[in-house]
Structure formats: structure tokens, C-alpha cells
Design brief:
The relative contact order is 0.03. It is built from 42 helices and no strands. It starts with a helix and ends in an 8-residue tail after the last helix. The chain has 730 residues and is an all-alpha fold. Helix 6 packs parallel to helix 8. Helices cover 65% and strands 0% of the residues.
Length: 730
Amino acid sequence: MKKPEDIAEKAANILKDEKVDAKVRSGAASALGNLGDAAAKYVPDIANILKDEKVDANVRSGAASALGNLGDAAANYVPDILNFLKDKKVDANVRYGAASALGNLGDAAANYVPDIANILKDETVPTNVRGSAASALGNLGDAAANYVPDIANILKDETLPTNVRGSAASALGNLGDAAANYVPDIANILKDETVPTNVRSSAASALGNLGDVATKYVPDIANILKDEKVDADVRYSAASALGNLGDVATKYVPDILNFLKDEKVPTNVRYGAASALGNLGDAAAKYVPDILNFLKDEKVDAKVRSGAASALGNLGDTAAKYVPDILNFLKDEKVPTNVRYDAASALGNLGDAAAKYVPDIANILKDEKVDTNVRYGAASALGNLGDAAAKYVPDIANILKDEKVDADVRYSAASALGNLGDVATKYVPDILNFLKDEKVPTNVRYGAASALGNLGDAAAKYVPDILNFLKDEKVDAKVRSGAASALGNLGDTAAKYVPDILNFLKDEKVPADVRGSAASALGKIRQLKLEEVAVVLNYVYEPNQGSFDYGQNNYEFWRFWTYFLGGGTEQVQTLLKWLGRPQATPDNLKHPEGVKILEEFRTTWKLSQEFPRLQQDLARQIAVVARKVSWQQQDILILETHYHNLKNAGYNEADSLQSVIINLKGWQWFFNARITILSHAAFWLALIFAYPKFPQIQAIFFWNPWVRRILGVGYVGFLLTWFPLPPQII
């Protein structure tokens, strides 16, 4: 497994490399922002990217966001970030990222709050930048307290776009006591039927975040929740706000509960009410019996009852004594299966409080008469209960082995074993056997593969077996995908099997999403060699990019992986400059660079034999390079190599190479002829100067007409006839 420091170094190199595509560099910036201390020493480089006007706007925006995420390490660059926020010539996306970064930098940005506030108030600033400035002020706490009136004015301004007003409402909610005087305004926004839905929803959320200062408006929030004419999303936010207000909303718990029970209320709002009760902790404790009764009410919509079950799981200790009731509810066959499933999940979330009921949960799992989804939930719950479920690992393993058990339940059992860690290690051989068993349903085998990947060192010696599944064409694609992911999770122990994973990647008969999983797995194992990188680069040309789950046109994903997995070497950079749908190729090439590129392409041609789409692009680019460079005589060999490669493969681009070669050879003939003629003339000139001193030369070369005609190639005799030798020489 690669260390964060190694990943940070590679990401920084990608970010700084001007030859790398903008979207790839932007992805590298995001990666650095998430790497914390490992990326700290690269903050100056990230800041330089932000400052460089020649860099693509998306890359600069990503750099700004990265600086914001790197905290203290980026503190010295706050003035630079602010300058970008204020500069109207800077792209709006970059300014948006700069505002967000300042909001994340805390105390380091506190002195610049006035500038951020000015951005918020400036009507000439793009709306997305103003919205980001509002959010930044909300994140800066006490430092922004003096600007709460300005933020409140933004919220109240009906002429502003809703996204800016929504951001202002959220900012006020984050500013706590400093926004206390403006709670009435926020409440008025919530109550105003003419205000757009998303602004009212943000206002409700803001009140929920303001704690005690919003106490007196709890009745208003409750009224919004109860008002049937109010949009469902606003009512949902009102329910969530009451849940967040804790003790001050205690006396409204009965109202929330009644609201939860009201069949006329939209399902998603009732679900929000259930979630609110789950967040009210002790305040809702005495109403747990009511929630339970609500759960038991067969007339209530299943989704709402499911929310109630989840609420009980979130109430922790306050719901502990009701674990038996939740368990009974789980066991009740008359309850809808999705609700029983959530009850099982709730037990899994209640930790120690549910520990002594693990046997009951295990019995649910083992009971063949219990619905599949419920048993699935029971298996997941056991996987979440850790040591308390350790003694039931054999039972979970038996479920996995039982061919009569539904495949989804067996899958959940496999996942549970993977989550239980060391206590499940002795069952690794059994899990492996299920992976191997062709009679086992596909999703169970997939779960077994995933479990092996999660069991670390205990599964290391079985890497060859996992690999066999990846290579076996008879094995279902989903199982092979799980095997690939498992190998990726097993890190260094799978390193020597990278060539096999690459062979799997080459197989276009394998579904694209499975191959995508295998490619991602490689990133967790080791850096690829050049001949291996071609396999990944070839995916840029996949016609249906959407099948990889990275977006229909997101071939940049594969360019990034090509660069990253290839270690960003000079060879890989050359490939990406010309191949794999670059945004542009170089216009002017000097001779040494052209030779280097063709030499690189000669190597790549050998690697492209298995990849027709890559080879087709390579053929085009060979012809392009051939036309852009002033070649020399010594380059004929490499040009002819490419010509023969293209000709033999049937590419018309061979004509471009042939034209260049013919031109070069014409000049070569002329050059060789020129040397011969000059040498011959020099020879006769030397004889002329030697004429007076050597009678032998006179007799052989000048007096003998045959020698003069033959060795003189005709023109010497002609010249001597019309231009006789000077008397001083004779």
C-alpha cells in the first residue's frame, strides 16, 4: 500500500506539470488537499499554481480549495488567496474556490473578513462567488460577527438569486450567538410564503443550528411543520431543525410525534419527523414507547415506520431498555420486511446495549422461515457488533456455507465475516472455498471475495487463488470484479500479480465496469512499467465511458490513472502529450524533440499491437510528428521503421512518412553527388598544378586522349579545349 507521502509527492508533480491535462491536474490538487500533513511541504507549489495566470481556471480553483483544506500549513498564503478572490479579472470558478478556502482557514483568515464581506455585498460579483463568500463568513465564526447585519441584509434582499440568499441563511445559522439579533428576520423568512422554497428551507436549517437563541421561535418552526400548505422540503427542514434544537424543542416532542402519526402528512416529511425524534436524545426518551407503538402500527407507511426504527437506533442509551421491544419488532412476521430490516440495523447500531441480544439476532439469521431481507439485516447487525458477536462467527460461517439459504443472506454473512476481523481469520479457507465453488450464487462469491480483501494478512497466502478467479473466463464478471477489488485491498502481497491483472484489463469481453474495478485496484498495489501503462491508456478510447461509472465523457479519469500509475515518468508524459485525447498537441517541434518522440512511439508501437484504438491514434500522431519536424539524413532509419510499421498495418498515414523519406533521400542523392563532383574537380585541379613538375602526369593524364576522356568524364577535355592552361603553369 502506498504511503500518503508517496501519493502526495506524485500528486504534487502532476499538479506542477504543465504538460498534463487540466482536469488531471485539478484532480491532483484535490488529492493534495485531502492528504493533510503528508501534503504540507507542497503548499508553496500549490500556491504558485493558484498565482499562475497561465494555468487553467479549474486547476487554480482546485489549488485554492486544496490550500483551504490544508489548514495551518497554508496560513501564510491567505493574502494571496484573498487577492484572487478580489481580482475581477480572475475566473469566477477560481474566485469561488478562493472564498471557500478562506472560510476553511479559520483564524488565519480572520483579519480579512472585511474583504470577504465586501465581496458578498458587491452586486457586480458573480452570484456563485458571493454565495461562496457568504458561506466563508459563516465558517469564520466570531471574526465575522460584525458583518452579520450585512449577511442578514443579503438574506432579506428579494432581488438577489436564491442560491446567494440560501448561502446567507446557512451562514447565519453557523454564526451562533453573533446572529442572535437576526433570528426574528430568519424566522420571518421561514414564515414568508412568498419566499422561494430553497431559501425557506435554508432558513429553517439555520434556526435549527442557532440553538438557544432560536428557542422562542420553536412554535413557529413547529407550525411550519404542521402547515399542510407549506412545501414538503421546507417542512422536512423544519422537522430536522426541531431535532437539532435539543432541549428547547422538548415540549414539542409530542407535536412532532403527533405529526409523525398524521397520515395526511407526506411520507418524506413524516420520515423527517422520525429522524428528528432520533436526534432529540434524552428529550425523546420518554416517548420511545410511543415510537415503538408507532412502529407497530400496521396502518403507518412502511418508510415512516422504517424511519422510526432508525430513530430508535440513534437514541443510544435512552433506547437501551427498549432493545427487547425492537427485537420483538424484528421478530414479528406481520411487520413489513423493510421495517424489520431497519430494526435489525438499529440493533446493530446500539452497540453494548444490544450485546446480550446477539443470540436472538443470530437466531433470526439462522431461522429459515424469516424473510430474506430481515435475515440480511441480522447478518449485517452481527457484523457491526464486533466482539459481542465473536462466538457466533461459526454460525455466520454456516449461513455462508448453506446452499439452501438465500443468496443475499449469504452475501451479508460473508460481508459480516469480513467486518469481524481477527475473530474470523480461521474461516478464511472456508470463505475461499465459497469463492471457488461454481455452484455458489454470484453475489455470494462476490461477498466472499470482498471479505477476503478485508481480512488482510490472514488472506495474504490465498492471493494466487483470488487471482485465478480474476483470470478465469468461466467465472461470472461480478465475481471477477470482487476478486480484483480484493487484490487491490491486499496491497503489497498482490504486487507480483500485477501483470495478470493487466491481462484481465485487456480483455474487452469482460464488462467495462469490472475492468474499471481492476484498474482502480492497481492504484493500491504498485507503480506500472511503461509496457503496462499502455493497458490503462487504452481505456481512454473506450466508446462508452459511462459504463465505467465515472461519467459518460470522463476519459480524463483514465488519463489521470495513466499518469499516476505510470509514476509520471518522462516517457509517460510524452505519451499523454500526444495520445489519449489530449486537449491540444504541440505546434512547434525542434529536431531533437521530434527524434525523441518518434523513438518513444517506436517502443509504443510494439505495445499497441493488442489495442487497435490506441494504435490508430498512434498512427495519426506519428504522421503528425513526421510533418512537423525538419528531419536530417540520419533520421531516415527511424522514419523508415515507422513507415514499414504503418504500411504493414494498413494505415494510410504511411504515405506521409513515405513523402518525408523520399524528400530526404532526394537531398541525400544531391548531397552525395555534390561531394563526388567536387572531389573529382579537386583531383583534376591538383593534377593541373602538378603538371609542370611531373612528366609522368603530363603523359598519363593530359597527353593520353583516352585517359583524359574516361577519367575526365567528358567535361575536363571540354574545359581544357575552351580554357587552355595558363603559360605560367605550362
